[in-house]
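May I ask for a protein sequence together with how it folds?
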Amino acid sequence: MGDLGKEEAAVEIVKARTDKREYRRIVLKNSLEVLLISDPETDKCAASMNVRVGSFSEPDGLEGLAHFLEHMLFYASEKYPDEDSYSKYISEHGGYTNAFTSNENTNYNFDVNAENFEEALDRFAQFFIKPSMSPDATMREIRAVNSENQKNLLSDTWRMDQLQKHLSSKDHPYHRFSTGNLDSLDVWPKERGVDTRLELLSFYEEHYSANIMHLVVYAKENLDKIESLVENIFQEIPNKERSSWHCTGQPCTSEHLQILVKAIPIKQGHELRVVWPATPDIQHYKEGASCYLSHLIGHEGNGSLFCSLKKMGWATYLYAGETEWTNDFSFFSVIIDLTDAGHEHMEDVVGMLFKYIDLLQKCGICEWIFNELSAISETRFHYRDKVHPVDYVINIASNMQFYPPNDWLVGSSLPSKFNPGRIQLLLDELNPNNIRIFWSSMKFEGHAKMIEPWYGTAYCAEKITESMVQQWMERAPNVHLHLPAPNVFIPTDLSLKSVAKKAESPVLLRNSSFSRLWYKPDTLFSTPKAYVIIDLHCPYSRHSPEAEVLTYIFTHLLVDYLNEYAYDAQIAGLGYSIHVTRSGFQVSVGGYNHKLRILLETIIEKVVKFEVKPDRFYVIKETITKEYQNIKFQQPHDQAGSYCSLILHDHSWPWTDELEALSHLEPDNLAKFAPLMLSRAFLQCYIAGNIGPTEAESVIQKIEDIIFNGPHSISKYLLPSQHLTNRVAKLAGSTNFFYPVEGLNPSNENSALIHYIQVHQDDFVLNVKLRLFCLIGKQAAFHQLRTVEQLGYVTSMSRRNDFGIHGVQFCIQSTVKDPIHLYMRVESFLEKFENQLCELSDDEFKSRVNALIDMKLEKYKNLWEESCFYWHEISNGTLKFDRTEREVGALKQLTHQELIDFFNEYIKVGAPTKKTLSVQVYGSLHTSEYKSQKSDPIPPNSVRIEDIFSFRNSQSMYGSFQGGCGRMKLQELFPGNC
């Protein structure tokens, strides 16, 4: 690059104080703007190219063309002509690749093991230099786009988003359908004599230009080497001197404002979206107007709108903030999930929203609130966790088109200029004359006579006036709405604690009849954060469907009771979770360690003092009932996965049994159950991060005292015979078990197959053989089954781990073929793949092994990622904290022949000891095939599962690693501590 380019590129990029990476902006001779990131500590390298072209740029009558082009660029290029070779290379070298198309942008991204980055980057660059886009691939990928669209047709998120677009100006690109389908990309263009492929090539030539692209490259080398690499590879992208496209005008004219739209969703529930066209926050991003108002309108603490709606029993969720936005327009939305009672009081809910907006008008713009938000944002930015490189580069590449270079890393995350006038302008836009209300509920069936054309959503629309909204405000309940108090959870002590002994793996710090504490200080990340995970093992929690549902309600009520208190903690960077587990429930708290203990002890106090509030019980029961009822609207491949787990996992209950139990439950049932559930408990604990061992032990001692020894103690210790285990069915060898079932939603045309091959119980050598097989095979399976055979958009081969029982799983969702055909195609793939596996050269085999070694040696990016690994070992009972080193050692000893022998014994079609389970979900297009399958003779060496529970009860079970309370295993590992 010439001196002029370098002088132009010089800029100081704002980065976090804790960020050790180096950054450099360069501009290539072709005007491609690039951010280089050097991270000597990284194991993965990544890149993201953001092209300033999206669905808004599509020609009329070719809806989805930009998205279709995104798909096509993955196929091949003039330099790398083998079809799918890019994705194959990335996959086989430990990487990930993806892309997405939005209104104004298309983003392409990948990561890969560091030693393979240069070639991967060169392959990636060919997308933008000379892609092939062959005629042969065109029709196949149109079908892939269509399959992706079919997957979304029964998604309420997609349906409601498109309805909002439909009710906008037809002259504005926002109005369009952006995904594309068979009609928009093939059938209708052919009827008009339009050649879609020629339009595709024309679109690429017209819009893909280096001067409107932004590239981020994240690598291990120093900046000079990365710069040289990028210059050599990307300077060939042609610069056609295109202008960045901007839409003109607003999406909504007067006829699209002051409307109330009632729509019928797919799932149970009532959602209210109150939407205002607004000035985009990006135009004045340092002033943070949207951030300020979303913080207040979306607040959940005492005096907030949500808190008041919750007390009325009218709402279970509220979000406020910008939803869709560009440089030229945006929408500020308040999205509220209503209860049945809230649905009947919709006008009151909207009235209360406007009362809160009126409160903000009367209180004026408060500098102290802005300063508090600014301080929280600054701490969050400077102490944010490192993330995976591919996620990092995607975010920055998107930022590059909106922000000046010095703020590429910051984006809108640091509001720093208090401008009350700017905030007031946005607040003034949230008025009744500017409103769009979208209200969805199944209760509108029979009233919604209009149909949105792309997704078939039924709706009706009516005009509302300012006087109507004013009447709603006047009639709404008089509740005490007020601004939030100062946030007491903002951390002020961010110092790092020194620990004398910095263990590289968790140590058993405490082991009593009441609890077991594993402790791991922060040795890698130097961050003022900590995590505490506590599993409360309560055997009464899962002895029946009723018990499981009551435990579920119990955890939801705990969160409900804590919400007003803990919301400030979450805003200040201290989060918590309470959720059901297979042995009871889990409490976890994580974030800045300064005030973590205060929040944790408050949560535990709520547990021991738990009482049932009938009004909240009924709200939570209603919410959970809808969750269960909506299971039937899950994607068929998700249904298949649930059936597979139900067949394999001991002591698991079908959702239908739990829904039936739920219908009869009353507050008194929970009032009696909660003390019983908590009467016997054991605490499995893990503490990690910026916390010393003495403090860690005192945290658990205090919790023990509260639960077992305090004035309100509720529990006794768990007897050894009461410890629960998670056991998995051991499938019989040489038999293909299959479970055919009709899809739960008769309106869903998709069928699905989960084909599971059970291999072994956790073992270092077998683990790496299975993982290496999946590394070599997963892209080949994707290419054959999805790209070549076009069976369906959802197509994958992956490893599966059920409590330490490992196997491989194929997942396919399809409208074009029924599950039996999908199963046959999987078997056919395995037959062909056998040859590919055997024909690997020595160099190819070593390359795959080294790629897997690099993947396994990849460093943890942050404290939470490290904690998840160790917690998985603890909760499963495997306790193999040196798993990485042991499995890498096994990999280094592995031979090609041993992998072939593994395949022949466990995976190969017809292998005598092979253990398989096929779950076959039949969609509405394949009803006749389901009926035939049920009456057809059962194939040799196959068993049709007629009843899941009779089958599961007839199978032997793998022994559990948890082994009661696990004392034997602990004594073997730490003989002095038990």
